Amino acid sequence: MTWGALGADNQPSLDVLRELGQESHLPVAAHLTCFGCTEANLIRRLTAFQAMGVNHIVALRGDRPDERELARLERVARAKLPIDSELRRNPVKTLKHAEELVALIKQASGMDISVAAYPEAHPESKDMKTDLFYLKSKLDAGASRALTQFFFKPETFLQWRDQAASIGIAKPLVPGILPIHDIDRVQVFARRCGTFVPASIVKQFERCGNNANAKRELALAFSTQLCETLQQEGVDEFHIYTLNQSSLAYDLGKRLRQPVAEHAAA
């Protein structure tokens, strides 16, 4: 369940979390971003999550605001302190890295923690070695697993998994799978997060023209094949992105539970 950006509270997210907790027996994981937030505010949010029965946090840095926005967030945080507080007259310490958030969650609660990972490196990282160093820092700080950004070639994940193992990362690395609901939107989204979309995939979707059913079937066939290839390499968990297209994710889950021959003939 996603959370607000730039440290903003997101009441709709809280409302949905509360309803999910009341109406479903499935465990719910809540996203939590930290950039520009104080430790006190984050602890209050963690307490609110626990009160709703949420015990799994996906700990993220969140979008990096520009310096002007960051200064504004710090002024707002300082203004909320008591008038006689010494902190009010000094700069307020806000978190800037997911590693800090993981450590805070681990110290303040017994909640399960997942973090983000990037098989093609985070767009802000100078290289893969540096990116893996930061991933290891988050896991060592107390996270139980890493959920990856989406990718479209199995070797992208498998080669990255080997690199991670070579520097001592032993905790589960869960591949992120995105069924392609709209190839144009996915390409835009992929450019923002540094994900490569093979030209061969783009061409296959373009050949479908305006046939929505053909596009949907292609999306399911491609994501199913990607998951099955990873399963053959020992992967037994997936993090499926929906981008508000939950029916595609649901149908992918159903296909993965079928014997291979059934959906291969579909």
Explained architecture:
- This protein has 266 residues and is of the alpha/beta class.
- The protein has eleven helices and six strands.
- 50% of the residues lie in helices and 11% in strands.
- The relative contact order is 0.09.
- Strands 1-2-3-4-5-6 form a six-stranded parallel sheet, covered by helices on one side.
- Helix 2 crosses helix 4.
- It is globular.
- The two termini are 32 Å apart.
- The longest helix is centred in the C-terminal third of the chain and has 20 residues, at 212-231.
- Strand 4 (145-150), helix 6 and strand 5 (173-177) form a beta-alpha-beta unit.
Briefly, what is this?
The chain has 266 residues and is an alpha/beta fold. Helix content is 50%, strand content 11%.
